[in-house]
Amino acid sequence: MTLNLIKLAVGCEGLAHLRDFQANRFAGNEVPGRVGEIWHRTRIGPRRREELLDGGSLYWVIRRAVQARQQILELRQVTCDDGIERCEFILDPKIVQTRPQPRRAFQGWRYLDSTDAPPDLSTLAKGLEDIPPQMRSDLIELALI
Fold first, then answer.
1. Is 33 exposed, middle or buried (0-12, 13-18, 19+ CB in 10 A)?
2. End-to-end distance of the chain based on CA atoms, in angstroms?
3. Pair 62, 6: CB distance under 8 Å
4. Among 39, 13, 14, CA closest to 24
């Protein structure tokens, strides 16, 4: 069974901010010479690796709601300059918008079963991705979409 992770996008102002940040990282502007990958580094790696790598995604909580996901392509153990081992999540560059799902703040990451994950906006109806985020949130709150 596929398993997902959920993580806060700390300091992220919105989906456009996440896209810009990751585009900068993908272009190698953050770490010179490291081009063509999107990664997210954590101190502790997940124990349920095989379930995550079986099509799992990292769901991003942005401004107190799950708003997007990226498929996890690989998990790497890396040793950083400070000598501490960490885990890098190598992510698909494509950011998929999800139906906003409210979430309280938490530290680190959490496992997220596929049955509890919010659906992709593209599976709900065509054109929802084009609606401004605030208007989309209001429509969802009113149960109109």
1. exposed
2. 29
3. no
4. 39
4 and 58 in contact (C-beta within 8 Å)? yes
The first and second tokens of residue 108, run together, are 């680190």
> What is the per-residue pLDDT across 52-84, written as a single tens digit (0 to 9) for each?
999 999 999 998 889 999 999 999 998 888 888
Give the domain ranges of the chain.
Answer: 3-141
d(CA 95, CA 82): 31
Tokens of 6: 């959920």
Please give the structure tokens belonging to residue 115: 């049955």
Tokens of 121: 């906006």
Closest C-alpha among 82, 111, 116 to residue 99: 116
- Give the β-pairing of 38-42 and 85-91: antiparallel
Residue length of the chain: 145
Tokens of 136: 């989309």
- pTM here? 0.83
pLDDT in tens, 76-130: 998 888 888 999 999 999 999 888 888 888 888 899 999 999 988 877 666 666 7
